[in-house]
Design goal:
Elements lengths: L1 E5 L3 H12 L3 E5 L3 H20 L6 H6 L1 E4 L10 E4 L5 H11 L8 E4 L6 H5 L8 E6 L8 E6 L5 H13 L3 E4 L8 H4 L1 H12 L5 H11 L6 H8 L1 H14 L10 H9 L26 H24 L5 H11 L6 H8 L1 H15 L13
Parallel strand pairs: 1-2, 1-4, 2-3, 4-5, 5-6, 7-8
Antiparallel strand pairs: 6-7
Bound molecules: nicotinamide-adenine-dinucleotide.
Nicotinamide-adenine-dinucleotide (NAD) binds next to helix 1 and helix 4.
């Protein structure tokens, strides 16, 4: 099968590599010649390194299966096209409707969007039943998770086909309902939002919150270090989009602390400064390793995460098994949140949330009905 990738940026290049390594001929299209050249050079170097490490046999033949093109019409022979261009609904819709004039009727059209409605993208097409979301994680060659998102118009048989294909590509697919943030980008919101709230209230500083969640919670990276790593241009915008898309549910409310970083151009590691200062000679401040405070921080953030996972289960966003897979494979959580809930006991999670709710009287802290059942 010939695969097309539209957009040769960070995600498009990674997805093209995954498809080529799975044995497909891949056509990669971008409007920017420089982006195509960068992707070509990066892919060549990645594949050579993989061959040197013994992970692939023949880097040259995998690379030769990838064709970098500056005309959309070159994608005519494709049977699956994955779009990974700028996160803009109007531009994505335009590209999808143009694509339909080029490809055959049996070509499947997927979007790698992180936050836009797949249903809305499908609505731009004459054959919306062939449109779906295929949400890879960054870097696509390394991250196993792929969220498969049917639009309300998508033909159900495509989902089964796509699940099989993603498995054949060495990925771990999960199915998510077409709702803001799908699974991972929705369920993970409190990891950032609640951590910032604790910091803004002066309960603990950033280093202490990061210390608590890594050393006591077992997360790989603390929320502030992680937001700096992701970049505030990406992380803040996802939060703001999810918040707006959920009709301003206070649970997803963005923060001014992060917005100010964005306004200052302090985007995180990539600009040398974010919540922390990465300039030479600067170091991450020391944490206050107070066990009682640390436990309180972990309980608050984790209760909010578990609540979000339960709410997603309650509203049929995904199956319990897929929710667990998504959070362990998509953001490397040490445990699935539903398993964590069982381990803690629903009563304890509910007690933490009800205590927050009683203190603040904010809808943000409402507990999922499943905790009371
Ligand atoms: N970066 C991530 O962590 C991540 C993770 C999952 C999903 N996504 C999603 O993947 C998509 C791409 O993100 P990215 O980080 O790779 O962006 P990027 O900026 O690295 O790359 C986007 C590429 O698309 C090209 N492009 C823009 N408009 C185009 C058009 N009309 N036709 C063809 N090419 C066009 C640009 O020239 C650029 O090379 C977005 O929808 C994003 O939300 C990103």
């Amino acid at each position: 099968m010939v695969v097309g990738v539209i957009g040769s940026g960070a995600m498009g290049a990674g997805i093209a590599q995954v498809a080529a390594m799975a044995g497909h001929t891949v056509w990669i299209y971008d409007t920017q010649q420089a982006a195509l050249e960068n992707a070509s050079a990066a892919l060549k170097s990645n594949l050579t390194k993989l061959e040197e490490k013994g992970k692939i046999k023949d880097a040259a033949s995998v690379f030769a299966a990838m064709h970098f093109v500056s005309s959309l019409s070159a994608l005519a022979p494709c049977k699956l096209i994955i779009e990974a261009i700028v996160e803009n609904l109007h531009i994505k819709k335009t590209v999808f409707s143009e694509l339909e004039t080029i490809v055959a009727d049996d070509c499947l059209l997927a979007s790698n969007t992180s936050s836009l409605s797949i249903t809305s993208i499908a609505a731009a097409c004459k054959l919306p039943q062939r449109v779906l979301g295929l949400h890879f994680f960054n870097p696509a060659p390394l991250m196993a998770l792929v969220e498969i998102i049917p639009a309300i118009q998508t033909d159900a048989s495509i989902i089964t086909t796509m699940k099989e294909l993603m498995t054949a590509w060495g990925k771990t697919p999960v199915i998510a309902k077409d709702t803001p943030g799908f699974i991972v980008n929705r369920v993970a919101r409190p990891y950032y939002g609640e951590a910032i709230r604790i910091y803004e209230e002066g309960i603990a500083d950033m280093a202490t919150i990061d210390w608590a969640l890594t050393q006591i919670g077992g997360f790989k990276m603390g929320p502030f270090a992680l937001m700096d790593y992701i970049g505030h241009d990406v992380n803040y915008v996802v939060t703001a989009t999810v918040f707006e898309s959920f009709y301003y549910d206070p649970r997803y409310k963005p923060s001014f602390s992060q917005k100010r970083l964005l306004e200052a151009g302090w985007l995180g590691r990539k600009t040398g400064r974010g919540f922390y200062n990465y300039a030479q000679g600067e170091s991450i401040p020391a944490a206050n390793e107070d066990a009682v405070l640390g436990k309180q921080i972990v309980e608050r953030v984790l209760a909010m995460l578990i609540n979000e996972a339960l709410e997603s289960l309650h509203l049929n966003i995904a199956s319990a098994a897929d929710l667990e897979t998504a959070m362990t494979k998509g953001v490397n959580y040490p445990k699935g949140l539903l398993a964590w809930c069982e381990e803690w006991g629903k009563e304890k999670v509910l007690a933490v949330l009800d205590n927050l709710y009683n203190n603040y009287h904010e809808d943000r802290y409402r507990a999922c009905v499943l905790l009371r059942k």
